[in-house]
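Long-time lurker, first post. I've been practising inverse folding by hand and with some scripts of my own, and I keep getting stuck on stretches where the structure tokens seem ambiguous. Below is the full token string for one chain I'm working on. Before anyone asks, I'm not after the true native sequence, just a reasonable design that respects the backbone. If someone could post their per-position residues I'd love to compare against what I wrote down in my notebook.
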């Protein structure tokens, strides 16, 4: 590509967008679940991974029992006080079908004004300022998670500052790794899955993601020199030594908020895509939203 990809420009806006939703949380907060409520968080693809992060973090902060599901896997008979649905386009078939089928209170977070989700959800939060031209999601997903973290009482000022730092780090060597496996614990497992997805989408690269403690139960077998293991958050005891023994490159940003480490991973995915002569804005076989016909 001769021009800067849309996705690169969108990645660079994340620090300011996180500050925006954190500082302006009051205008969104009334729609989001309250402490003590039993909640399900739902999405597809990237949105599902953000739902995973939110669910684990909400429980870890003592805010209430929270489950996360891919849109197609939501258990229809399970009862919740609220269902938080994430969909950038507001048109994803599995998500809309879920809202139509449930009688539970639903809160949708979307980037697209006037999309079908507005008519279906009980309440809708519009983050249109975080929408994207690129098919590959970056800033909408993390801005949504920043909003959800703010709803749990977290201060996002350090995360935003760390994201600014993440935009300055050199990623060229990381983009040269043959293969990367991403790992995390609790809420950062969702971030690990999202980082892996970015490389698959943008660069058609072989990546994997696992809970960090499960990594030694088989996946470590592919670790070797020229490949990497990217650790989000604190590494479980002994994991770094075990990975180092394989000769694989260990990638970790202990000084950064884990969402800022995800920003670095986004940049690596774009750099790898461009090095391979691909267009990171238009991934192979992907569209902005998955809309299924009635026969599927």
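-- Answer (accepted) --
I ran through it position by position. Result:
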């Amino acid at each position: 590509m001769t021009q800067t990809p849309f996705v690169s420009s969108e990645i660079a806006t994340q620090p300011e967008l996180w500050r925006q939703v954190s500082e302006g949380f009051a205008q969104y907060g009334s729609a989001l679940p309250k402490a003590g409520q039993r909640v399900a968080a739902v999405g597809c693809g990237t949105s599902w991974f953000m739902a995973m992060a939110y669910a684990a973090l909400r429980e870890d902060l003592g805010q209430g029992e929270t489950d996360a599901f891919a849109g197609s896997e939501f258990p229809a008979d399970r009862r919740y006080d609220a269902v938080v649905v994430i969909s950038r386009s507001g048109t994803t078939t599995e998500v809309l079908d879920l809202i139509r089928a449930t009688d539970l209170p639903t809160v949708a977070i979307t980037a697209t004004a006037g999309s079908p989700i507005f008519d279906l959800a009980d309440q809708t939060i519009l983050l249109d300022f975080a929408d994207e031209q690129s098919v590959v999601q970056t800033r909408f997903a993390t801005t949504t998670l920043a909003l959800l973290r703010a709803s749990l009482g977290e201060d996002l000022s350090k995360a935003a500052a760390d994201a600014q730092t993440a935009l300055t780090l050199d990623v060229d060597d990381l983009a040269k790794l043959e293969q990367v496996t991403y790992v995390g614990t609790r809420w950062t497992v969702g971030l690990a899955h999202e980082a892996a997805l970015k490389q698959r989408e943008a660069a058609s690269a072989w990546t994997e993601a696992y809970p960090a403690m499960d990594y030694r139960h088989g996946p470590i077998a592919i670790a070797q020199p020229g490949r990497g293991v990217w650790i989000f958050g604190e590494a479980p005891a002994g994991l770094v030594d075990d990975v180092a023994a394989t000769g694989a490159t260990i990638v970790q940003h202990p000084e950064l908020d884990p969402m800022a480490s995800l920003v670095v991973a986004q940049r690596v995915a774009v750099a790898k895509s461009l090095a391979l002569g691909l267009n990171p804005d238009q991934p192979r076989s992907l569209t902005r939203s998955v809309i299924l016909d009635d026969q599927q």
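A couple of notes from the structure itself: The longest strand covers residues 179-184. The CA atoms of residues 83 and 103 lie 10 Å apart. Happy to go over any region you disagree with.
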